[in-house]
Amino acid sequence: MVVQSGGSRNVYVGSIEDFETYSDEKLRTDFGEYGEIELINFLKEKQCAFVNFTNITNAVRIYIACPRFSSSFATFHRH
Known about the structure:
This protein is α+β, with helices and mostly antiparallel strands. It has 3 helices and 4 strands.
């Protein structure tokens, strides 16, 4: 059902201004509690990152927990 609705294993994290604070380790720690992460792709020139989970269910868990992340990460959504 989620895939038919355009769901993805990828979560976009935007508005990253400090890549030292929001490092691979930080994103893996914060997002990893929702499931196994396959890859984190940083696009510093665009001030964003993509967190790629091993399955779509893990990515969906982030949206269920969305209010928790609002204070830590400026922007994130499925991509």
